[in-house]
Model the fold of this input.
Amino acid sequence: MSDEQAAERFNQARAAQAMAVLEDYAEMIGDLIEEMGEARITDIAGRMGVTHPTATKAVARLKRAGLVISRPYRGVFLTEEGAALATRVRARHRTVVDLLVAVGVPPETAELDAEGIEHHVSDTTLEAFEAFMAKAPTADRG
Amino acid sequence: MSDEQAAERFNQARAAQAMAVLEDYAEMIGDLIEEMGEARITDIAGRMGVTHPTATKAVARLKRAGLVISRPYRGVFLTEEGAALATRVRARHRTVVDLLVAVGVPPETAELDAEGIEHHVSDTTLEAFEAFMAKAPTADRG
DNA sequence: ACATAAGTGTAGCCAGTGCTTTATTTGAGC
DNA sequence: GCTCAAATAAAGCACTGGCTACACTTATGT
Done:
């Protein structure tokens, strides 16, 4: 592999990582709205395991990215784009967990690892995962 | 899932990400030493797709982590710990790529996605991958 | 020895993502 | 309507990890 290709690979991985945080927040805000009708900064912070100021900053970035809207001292809400992203992320998360379980990873571990893995799964890979599971739903385990 | 569990998941993913950069650099420095006898800052930078100052900073962090040693204007070398990490990372990378290919991901895509995925694959999951491939080396494709 | 090019280091800037500390706003209870 | 607790915001710190610009070292060629 040439250095240029290697560099491209790393740059792509870095870009994916940058997106990952936004994806996590969008997904979680979607969850919170579904569960509690609205997403408050405090709830977001609690669930992400960070302090409120950190959550506030993250929301600011999400607003900048056009994924959410919010008004001071009011809840945070997903834009159409944000909601679409949240849905997509959630579906991908499920697929990754299912794939891991299908190849024999214990469910709890699959859930844990998927949190990091999912952000690096390309559309191509996701399709392959789905195709694989359609073909061998239980991976013929045992 | 409780908020605490969710937070723990995210914190774990964040910790994995912090380690990922060190792993990438250690692996690549190992590659360079193997290929060219030594790892120069410029080579590291070129292959990572970053500028030399960035590579220099990364090497400084690696030194702080005890993974490499270096003297000004001389090459960078892995410590025993760094070499062990590089070996481990390289093996894991291969396993992840192979697993992806085994479930039907195109090889080039597998290589690309593995770069990001590998850092989030726990030992448990890695073992499951190996067991899966031992059982179905070609995943019965086609 | 000296000039020059390549490699390396350093300084300073920016953005992201965490933190703590300190206002401010909101909303509930009196 | 005032007070107070909770929620939110704002500001400042630290570290990572990019960058550019500039200084310095090394190696090479004359």
Notes: The interface with chain A takes residues 3, 6-13, 16-17, 24, 28, 43, 46-49, 99-100, 103-106, 109-113, 115-117, 119-122, 124-125, 128-129, 131-132, 136, 139-140 of chain B (CB under 8 Å).
